[in-house]
């Protein structure tokens, strides 16, 4: 049962507003004026509403594709993509046990050279299928990984998932890739989980695509119901918008262990969709659950599944929304419910939940650094930055490190310590993944972020074919470019020495 407490009035107002504008019906009718008069990046971004049904007609093709991989001796499937093109495959890889006799699914969405170097040892080229996933077909990380893969893997072990007509689609045909899956172009990256972007990796790993789609399909009628009592997406969207309006914009996700990594996907959906024009939901994913006294009065807790430790939070006056968890069997429903909620939250907040107006800035700054050469950035003492943290802020650790290194756990400890000491929300994003997820919110959302950037050293580098720089240079340029962009927005952002940040727990 939801316990909305201090945000109940604001949630009621959001529900009234959405009902008054006939929001649910207009959304399903693909009426872009629900969000803005200009149809650009709205009218052509609503294909996710019905994609589960459309994809059901492709289930046979996907099954044939998956069966053939196993028969051809493929043991590893590596998805190369960023943000919306890779995070749902990451959820699949981490939520489902490998299917016996089928390839193991893995995702690469980092420019950390240590991981890139390891990957080619851990996934022998003769047994590996590489999937290049990019809506635009132009994302530098994805194209760099593809270039590395093509050094060792023959084109008939490479697949492209992209929009029709992109340069990646042209390459798939010209270079004889094993398959090209052209995605419906009216679906934005972060809403693409139930399209080819999620389903091709699922089929390759031998997962039950039909079940995933059926779970979403079964949820659709309720999600189209204008009655909030019947529509969990409408209730959730109003709760998110009401929380933002009531100053509780730190939406803290507490997720069922089996599908824990859905938090990563939800983070990018919420942050990139709502974090703009100075407002938005600040999703807090993967933060350890604590006692009431470590939280400020800027939180809304959203729990998926049953958890110990929530009742004391509600009793202490923190608003709580509880959603059932269907585990892996309910993933399709969960995805569609949150997409509906996010789209309606955007309508209630008066923003377009389908664009990402600030993402290009950091990309441009990275290119500038690559062209002009990087600079030596002297680390700022952590204490100097933490001195600036106050109530209502959030501290975002942005770590350009090897995602599989133990340092990530140590950073989680540092994160918890900062949360407990300052009673502020904390996030931990791995670079450059977060640039395609929370990066939009950091720059365009509420200016309450305090950004701690750490950049791991690279004992080895990996060259990127056909580029004048390797992964290490790219990683450092991405970090520097983002730091410049955050500072250009007047935000509190600093490079911190990794050792200094880890010291915080001692
Ligand atoms: O699928 P693409 O075009 O490679 O883009 C990857 C990601 O980059 C972003 O455009 C923004 O960083 C996301 O919205 C998107 O999911």
Q: Give the percentage of residues in beta strands.
A: 5-15%
Bound molecules: 6-O-phosphono-beta-D-fructofuranose
Question: How confident overall, as mean pLDDT?
Answer: 97
**DSSP summary, beta strand count:** 13
- Computed over alpha carbons, the radius of gyration is 22 Å
Structural class, judged by helices and strands?
A: alpha/beta
Shape, principal axes of CA atoms: globular
Portion in helices: 40-55%
- Unreliable sequence segments: none
Largest sheet, described in full?
5 strands, parallel
Strand order of the largest sheet: 2-1-3-4-5
Number of helices: 20
N→C terminal distance: 40 Å
Catalytic activity: alpha-D-glucose 6-phosphate = beta-D-fructose 6-phosphate
Pfam families: PGI (PF00342)
Protein name: Glucose-6-phosphate isomerase
EC number: 5.3.1.9
Describe this structure in words.
Pfam families: PGI. This is Glucose-6-phosphate isomerase. Its EC number is 5.3.1.9. It comes from Iamia majanohamensis. The chain is α/β, with parallel strands linked by helices and 506 residues long. It has 20 helices and 13 strands. It has helices spanning 8-20, 23-28, 51-56, 59-71, 87-95, 113-122, 140-152, 167-174, 196-204, 209-223, 232-245, 262-274, 311-315, 331-349, 359-372, 382-386, 407-422, 439-444, 471-488, 498-503, and strands spanning 76-80, 104-108, 128-134, 158-162, 179-182, 250-255, 282-284, 299-304, 320-323, 394-400, 425-430, 449-455, 492-495. The strands form 3 sheets. It has a 5-stranded parallel β-sheet, with helices on both faces. Strands 7-6-8-9 form a 4-stranded parallel β-sheet, with helices on one face. The chain has a 4-stranded parallel β-sheet with strand order 11-10-12-13, sandwiched between helices. Helix 10 (209-223) runs parallel beside helix 14 (331-349) and helix 15 (359-372) crosses helix 19. The protein is globular, with a radius of gyration of 22 Å. The two termini are 40 Å apart.
